[in-house]
């Protein structure tokens, strides 16, 4: 009996100590592409010049799981609170490339995570129920993400094609539920458009792309290919203020794989929708663009489910050349 009891106990503790990816799709239960980051003005690349963007991302979510081990059902859950600040310098080069403009950026993330996991393990032979749990909390630098974008403009239409590369240099520790980095290379390819009519103030934007993930060499876990789609419809009432709706849809098109994906080729899915507001103002002579977004998630499969938001501030560091 004691051998059986020990197996159940250690199995339950193993569930809590394993990375979130062992119980939910995508290792760490998240990808490096932040869902909702490209909604309003998704297809717009600003004029040549140097800019500073500051993304503030907040997420709070949870999930429940149920596993059968040694004939017993283990029930548990995971709760996560996340905050990322991503300082993002952007340089749009002068001149034309393929008939448009080219911009170079790098996202430098500083993240804070608090993740707790718990389980209930019934032991009928002893007439007791065990409730092991753990809580990890970290505030660290994440993986830097350089990127390149090509942008075109014609009348009310704006288009961009861009790529982001996740460089695994941020904080990551095996078994830590609150890792800020991903310990894997990744590439994202995204195309976007924005239609903006200045006469009526209506904006319609959309972006779609794929994230391709490399293997985590320390866990032998390869997250599947991820598809993301984002959109926004905004009515601008003046140059200073606009409000509308924005959302996203995420779907893993291939399952997780590798020796570390011990529970099988999970594939995640989630959708989110909520309001967005754009505020434009000046600090002295410095123009500042601010975007506030909120998303409530639904239609969730094999992922955390919760609420997220962005506060994004953009300002030029050098004035664009006179037109």
Describe this protein's structure.
The protein has 323 residues and is mainly beta. It has a single domain (2-67, 78-117, 137-316), classed as Porin (Beta Barrel), CATH 2.40.160.40. 5% of the residues lie in helices and 59% in strands. It contains one helix and 16 strands. The strands form two sheets. Strands 1-2-3-6-7-8-9-12-13-14-15-16 form a twelve-stranded antiparallel barrel. A two-stranded antiparallel sheet has the order 10-11. Strand 12 and strand 13 (241-252) form a beta hairpin.
Comma- or semicolon-separated keywords:
323 residues; mainly beta; Porin; 12-stranded antiparallel barrel; two-stranded antiparallel ribbon; 1 helix; disordered N terminus
The CATH topology assignment is Porin
Number of spatially distinct domains: 1
Q: Regions with pLDDT < 50 over 5+ consecutive residues?
A: 1-23
Strand order of the largest sheet: 1-2-3-6-7-8-9-12-13-14-15-16
Amino-to-carboxy terminus distance: 82 Å
CATH class: Mainly Beta
Mean pLDDT: 86
Count of beta strands: 16
Rg (CA only): 22 Å
The biggest beta sheet is recorded as: 12 strands, antiparallel, barrel
Strand content: over 45%
Bin the helical content: under 10%
CATH-assigned homologous superfamily: monomeric porin ompg
CATH architecture: Beta Barrel
Structural category is mainly beta
**Element-by-element helix/strand order:** HEEEEEEEEEEEEEEEE
* Shape descriptor: elongated
Count of helical stretches: 1
